[in-house]
């Protein structure tokens, strides 16, 4: 179905941070499948784990115990503030489950009248009817009316707007530490800290959407850790299993205990194959020094991008983001910038506010960062010359 505006590229194989087309062209992948191929392509540890599990059992369903899923949940709990985990298949499903958890927590504590959730302008939480309503973007909602009720949208990073939006029917708050689709817009640390205080003051559930920011992308296992807060619910997907479809909801006990047998479920969620892939990703991401290396590489990339922005103000306006989740706000249309980068051999993903998104695999090397910066500078020089009528 014509649901995607695809680029005219097709890849037959990948190796590390590189993708290769059928006609032999090579591209440095700074999109990583929209921040999903966390270990890059053909990572030996991930491939071995998937192969070994496929030879044993791929799927059994949650009618039965899945010991490796139980162990994965234990590892995620140990690495985070959560007490238990629900596994699903995607970020949209994880966020849908978070919405259900927030509402059910209120209903099960005698507050069924509290069902509304505060979300933020510029957000993106998924493509289901509930997560589209939580996103609130008219472009994505068009044609799917009536919108699911129960979501109130306020300006991002505006704590007073949140306070004003809280009413007797408010049940929770959902926020991204960095708005990815919205244009790589980071939440200020004091904003996240303020949301935690407001949630405590009014008895709300604070949910953090870590679909893009989680699994080490910012240099911490979960991005909200930078602000020092403890959410009540957090969602993961994208990079959790290195490209194998998987999502997860991590919750504190006061929320999780209301998810009783039959109240929610997933046929494929946490199946042995996806779990094996997620274990392999955790083996790498939680290894000593790995997250620190992501932070260091992110800083190196930020420095290089900042120098390019300064050198080519007619092409780039600013650098945004944290770690290896960065964005360049463009002056020309982002599609033109993306095409110029592709012509140099670099793959990037477009985002809101005319931003091109840079989310390379977490295993990217310093040499590959330098190569990407060279490509971006070359594309910027070409675009700058075009905008000035061909002058150097």
Rg for CA atoms: 21 Å
Gross CATH architecture of the largest domain: 3-Layer(aba) Sandwich
Amino- and carboxy-terminal Cα gap:
44 Å
Number of domains: 2
Q: Topology as H/E string?
A: EEEHHHEHEHHEHEEEHEEEHHHEEHEEEH
What is the count of helical runs? 13
With strands numbered from the N-terminus, the spatial order across the biggest sheet is 4-12-11-10-7-5-6
Strand content: 15-25%
Given as residue ranges, the uncertain stretches (5+ residues, pLDDT < 50) are: none
What is the helix content? 25-40%
In total, the number of strands is 17
CATH-level-4 superfamily name of the largest domain:
Type I PLP-dependent aspartate aminotransferase-like (Major domain)
> What is the overall silhouette?
globular
Oligomer: single chain
Overall SS class: alpha/beta
By CATH, the topology of the largest domain is Aspartate Aminotransferase, domain 2
Describe the main β-sheet briefly: 7 strands, mixed
